[in-house]
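fold-stage: in
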Amino acid sequence: MDFKLKIDVSPISFVSKDDPPVLLVHGDQDNIVPVEHAFRMQERIKGAGVAVELVIVEGVEHSVSKTDPQTSCVC
């Protein structure tokens, strides 16, 4: 995928002042999407004047498991 297409389809490109409040949840062990992306998204949303909360879940990778008691409440 070329760089311009990645930018065009990235969720960060769609942030708008008209968005509802946002809850971001990101695992600190995510090896697919680095946790830094969650911080960037949080800043972009704040910059648009939208309420945002970011929760970093320790020990969690890219997805959560309904069988893991630590993360099942997040699903």
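fold-stage: in (second)
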Amino acid sequence: MQSQQQLLQQRRQQLAQQFTQQQQELQQRQFLQQRLLAEQWQQLQLLQQRWQLQQQRLERLTALADSGAISKLDLQLQQETTLQIQQQLAELNGSRQQLLANQAQLDGQLQRLPTEHQQQLSLLESEHSRLEQQQLELQGRQQLLLSAPVAGRVTNLIAEPGKTIAAQQPLLTILPSGTALEAVLLVPTRAFGFVEPGQRTRLRFEAFPYQRFGIYEGEVTQTGQAILLPNELDMPVPIQEPVYRVAVALESQEIRAYGSSVPLQSGMLLSADIVLEQRSLLSWLLEPISSLRGRL
């Protein structure tokens, strides 16, 4: 883009030099034409005077020839001289008409030269404007100001300086201020049969090994009504089978670690167990008897 702008600037300078050179050449030719016309006019005036004198001489000699004072040969020579002068006048008038035509052509070229120069400059200005518009569009594509619809905290920042971004690719996530994080579980269809809202969950965060930082509680708040196929998901973990989406409310938004509280971050991976039912120890002990009674 910069090189094209430089070429346009060089073209402007070339046009200015070309205009000045052409104008000087045309003015010089015009000056020479005017000199030729002036000289030719003087020649024409002298030749016309000579022709008038020759006409007068011919009239006198004709009268003398009629009276026999001079021979017919002398008269014929004067007649030939008169014809030669007439021919010279005709040639000079023809040459003068050609010079006048050339002069008119030069005048027209000089008059059109500024207009043609301005037209060429206008084309360059149009090209310059087009390049500037392209540059603005490129700058607009390189930089785009996005305003968040809500106040909050940026999470899952994917964009980095110099990194190529694909179309439809999420660049970041904004967690609105005051919004509580929730866990999203992807439950295989084979294990989804008895999952329903209100069930308790036990969560293990990969960033905080449960052997050291413990297991955290949550509650199922929403279950998906349609299955999600692996090719429909954009997740950081591979999914090999159809799943249902299950939302879980967290009892705590932070992890107790080394005597301080560490806030949970959006995008953290976790695994979970959903408590489908609770039984007392007695019911577990009596279950074989109940099963035997059912078969009797």
